[in-house]
Every structure is written in C-alpha cells, then in structure tokens.
Amino acid sequence: MLTQQFEQLSFNACPSQKTIFYDGWVIRLSDGVSKRANSVNPIFPPVITEFPSTSVEQKIQFCEKVYQAHNLPTVYKLSQHTYPTHLDSLLAEYGYQFVGLTSVQTLSLNNFDERFVIAKKIQNVEIDIQTDCNELWLSDFLTFNGYSADKRQGFFNILHSIALPTAFVTLTIDEQRIGCGLGVIEDGFMGLFDLAIDQSYRGKGYGRQLVYHLVSYAKENSCHTAYLQVILDNRIALNLYHSIGFKEQYQYWYRVKSLKPKGA
Predict the structure, then answer these.
(1) If both were cysteines, with which of 77, 125, 129, 178 could 201 make a disulfide (CB 3.0 to 4.6 Å apart)?
(2) Number of neighbours of residue 78 by Cβ within 10 angstroms
(3) How distant is the alpha carbon of residue 229 from its chain centre?
(4) pTM score, two decimals?
(5) Using one digit for the tens of pLDDT, what is the confidence trace for 125-147?
(6) Alpha helices per DSSP H over the chain
(7) Calpha distance 98→100 (Å, rounded)
C-alpha cells in the first residue's frame, strides 16, 4: 500500500529514539521534539489474532500510559488508511484534538533536467552539501525554524541516528548562511525534510533553490522519486512545490491529547 510505503520511508528518515511495536501500531518516542518522532502510528492491521485479543480501547489506554510515563502528550498520526478505520472518530470522542493536516507529495525524477537548476541559479548564491550533520547546520536549522535551544539535543539525537545516506544542504549568499535542508535517500527515493529559509530572505526564490539542488543531488545519486510533507495551511510552500511539479499522494493529520498533570 502506498501510504504504508511512504510512512515507513519517513520512519527511517526520521528515526525515533525509542520504538515499541504493539499489535500493528508503531509507538515512537524522541523526547517530544516533534510530533513525527513522538507519535503512535497505526498503519498496520492487528497481528494478534488468537484469543484473548486486545481491544482498540485497551490499546489506546496502553499508549496513553506509555506517553504519560515519558512525560509526553499522547499523539496519533493518522490517515485514511489507519487501522482500524474508525480510530480517528474514536479518538475524537476521547477528547483528542485534530491538528496538523499535512499533504504527502511526490515528484518523478525521470524527466527532471539538472540543466534547469543551473539556468535558474540566483547570482551570488552558493550551495554546500555535506553527508553528515555538523554543528553549524544544526544551529541554522534551529534558528530558521524558530526552535528553542532546549530542542537542540533532541534533534541532534534524531539526526545522528539516521542510518541511510543523507544530504545536509546549506544555502549561502555573500558568505551569509540563509537556508538549509535535508535529503534522505532510501531505495531510489529521496525524502526532503526541514527545508527552511531565514525569515528576512523569504519570498525571494531561495526556497526554490534549496529544492532544485536537493532534487538534482537525488537524481545524481540514482533516485527516481523525491517526496516531501507540507502542512496544508502553508500556502506559500504548497504553491512552490506545485510549481516544481510535486503531486499529492495522500494526507495525514494528528490527534493530540494533552499530558495529564501528575497525580490527576
């Protein structure tokens, strides 16, 4: 199934620090630094079929206890292909809030021409691609995305746990770093993650440069498809990816239940 394929690609591109496989549900924990790495992912059908079976309600209670023990809110990442299909409505009944509707999009690289990247290159822009995450890239990533310093160690742990080939991209203009992005390659696919431009340089075509160069790098490394995830209220990013040729494959969203105060 397409959804399962891309969800597994994203698991590997953004590895959690702790993982529990629970009767078809993948429970991910990573110090709460992002919903993607700290959520329940019910993307597989139940694997426990013998009596006594575990009810959906029991599974929800189990997950809540796991996140409560880690002092984290319980978060579910859901789509139209969630198992069971009524889980979203059930979580809504239990008070879980709907947030973060996101589009998963792909771009075929079969007809992508690297010469187009050169033709569209902005004067004075330099692109640097490293295969490992360094401290400068991590600092830029936190700054451009508006993350607080207390998230640094959590993101450091995730980024240094990626077991696949990576491309950490930095965009520089007149010796000033103004953008960054990450590409993760697996089995002919490159996932584009954490694309960000310094706020004072947005709307000037630099985001397009990040995407072009990551996609060009993907093709140079024998990838046939690029994919990314974009929140649907980010109209600027949606328009950019549409103009490049990305097409939506499916949507996902989160259901979030706030952490109960201790002793409650």
Answers:
(1) 178
(2) 21
(3) 6
(4) 0.91
(5) 889 999 999 999 999 999 999 99
(6) 2-13, 56-69, 87-93, 114-119, 135-145, 152-159, 206-220, 235-244
(7) 7
